[in-house]
Amino acid sequence: xxxxxxxxxxxxxxxxxDAGYPILYMNTFEELxxxxxxxxxxxxxxxxxxxxxxxxxxxxxxxxQDLYKNDLAKTxxxxxxxxxxxxxxxxxDGKVIVFKDIHHYLEESEVISLLKQLVNKINLGADxxxxxLSPIVKIPKELEKFIxxxxxxxxxxxxxxxxxxxFIEYQELPKVADKLLDELAMAFKGLTKFEINNLLALAxxxxxxxxxxxxxxIFEQKKQMIMKSxxxxxxNVKESVDDIGGLENLKEWFAKKAKVIKNIHxxxxxxxxxxxxxxxxxxxxxxxxxxxxxxxTLFEVxxxxxxxxxxxxxxxxxxxxxxxxxxALSEAISPCVLWIDExxxxxxxxxxxxxxxxxxxxxxxxLTWMQDKESPVFVVATANNIMDLPPELxxxxxxxxxxxxxxxxxxxxxxxxxxxxxxxxxxxxxGIDLDKLVxxxxxxxxxxxxxxxxxxxxxxxxxxxxxxTTDDILRMIENTHSLSEIMKEPLEKMNKEYKERKFxxxxx
Length: 508
What we know:
Blueprint: H1 9-18, E1 23-27, H2 31-42, E2 46-51, E3 55-60, E4 63-64, H3 77-86, E5 95-100, H4 109-123, E6 128-134, E7 147-151, H5 157-171, H6 178-188, H7 193-207, H8 215-229, E8 232-235, H9 248-261, H10 264-270, E9 277-282, H11 288-299, E10 303-306, H12 308-311, H13 318-333, E11 336-340, H14 343-346, H15 357-372, E12 377-383, E13 401-405, H16 410-424, H17 434-439, H18 446-462, H19 470-478, H20 483-486, H21 488-500, E14 504-505
Helix pairs in contact: 1-2, 3-4, 5-6, 5-7, 6-8, 9-11, 13-15, 16-18, 18-19
């Protein structure tokens, strides 16, 4: 990991300004916190901020001054930029100019042209910096080369823990046990200071103390946070390890990782490296997605789903910004499982077959993050066709392990049938000849097996039967074309590829 990536946000801003980077783009919803960070990073430089509502505001010793405030409130930004460029009143040397919510104006050609003139002044030796402060990243093509994005930092574990302790002391609440304090601090990760204090106040108003029951409030707030982001989806998980028929090797591996994830701090102290994740590749309909859900259950952490389609934006840098936000959000909420379904579709064409420039950049960002990440974000990536994935993704250091999921064996088919019959018709299970069904379902996927059970149950109900029998399911099997029939050649190619690459088999 580079030295820059290990710096705090304030250190990064300061170093970028010292190096003469013309425009820094701070992507944050916390405007006040952003301004404070900029002031801290600016040192001896004066900070001058503009917003449509306030006009120009000069900060001295960290405090906003009235100077300039009345001149340019409710004034179009183009006029403000013209005055900054022309009027000696606004001598720019030694200043940091902060434009709040500038994303509203970055489609205006006049604004872009005037900003370029400001940048040219910096490139010619003028000693000032420009910072965009906005919750939305919007980068015009004309300014792309001059802009460096700075993502806002989320509060760390220690800072959150102190916030909780300070709240308890201030409100004179009953002392909270260290274990619960640790749980609350981990649960609050990813929320802003404002959100944390609001939830603490809500918990206090509810029963006058902080208890384990308050973890539910935090979880609901996080769900809202994820929903509002529009990038990630928080998946409600009901599945357990008992819902997986077979795949014993993979289940055992998950169980081992669960011991680490559920005891992160102790594991780190012992010297255990933070788990990165797993790539599960193989046959469609054989439980790859189910395993992502089960991992979340075993680890007792939230399951976040990343839809690569949601990341794609129409503006320059927007897709990459969305990727950074998704990663930052998942890290802030960690420990969690980040599920990326059908990974090969997300990075289609990277192998030299027409991948777009944006896709290539997204892939590069993802690879770098997977290689360097130290946060407890456990990535579960699934793929149907491993041959469409770039080889760089499968090198050591990206994922902890790569597993191949093939068509279920006889004993696995029996377990899968048992699971689906028990789920729908538990009273009928004892009367069904599972071994007979297994003998008739060679080459069936897990989805195929679930389908024949569902169809048999529906058919029995439609025909007024009181129970589902072996014959009912056998009739559905006769009317079903298995995956091995439909995809014979592709499956043969896949199996050969997985064997050559020596992927671990998820089944025993």
